Fold this sequence. Notes:
The protein is of the alpha/beta class. It has 7 helices and 6 strands, in the order H-E-E-E-E-E-H-H-H-H-H-H-E. The protein has helices spanning 3-9, 68-73, 76-90, 109-112, 121-132, 138-148, 156-165; strands at residues 14-15, 38-42, 48-50, 55-58, 61-64, 171-174.
Amino acid sequence: xxxxxxxxxxxxxxxxxxxxxxxxxxxxxxxxxxxxxxxxxxxxxxxxxxxxxxxxxxxxxxxxxxxxxxxxxxxxxxxxxxxxxxxxxxxxxxxxxxxxxxxxxxxxxxxxxxxxxxxxxxxxxxxxxxxxxxxxxxxxxxxxxxxxxxxxxxxxxxxxxxxxxxxxxxxxxxxxx
Length: 177
């Protein structure tokens, strides 16, 4: 994943695009299913902290509960329980939301993507169903989560700085040409 070296070259402090599980089209080839927050060090470059989306591990499966469609699909009780478990297991919980998750209006792939009509009808219907299922549930769920966890949130930047200060944070050496 050479983009991590490029981010470090551009003086980015952290990256939060990692999905630490192998699910469908998402596979992390660097840290695999490890949900740990890690520091990448590349030769001659500044450190880059990777803050992956939080996932729960159960036997051989990994479940995301705090981001995107997962946050929309799950009932609030399951989300609150998973947040508590993640905080216990790893000390923190990373939320991951796309900007469109905050839009309560219906999304249509035909209106939002050029060339969408090249997809089969079944694929267009699947995308539209996936993007619109429980669309209006995000904001009420976040209100509940914020109310239950008042004062416990920090920014990714603050978290990355804490990781860099800890000598115990795992360090992965990346070698890119």
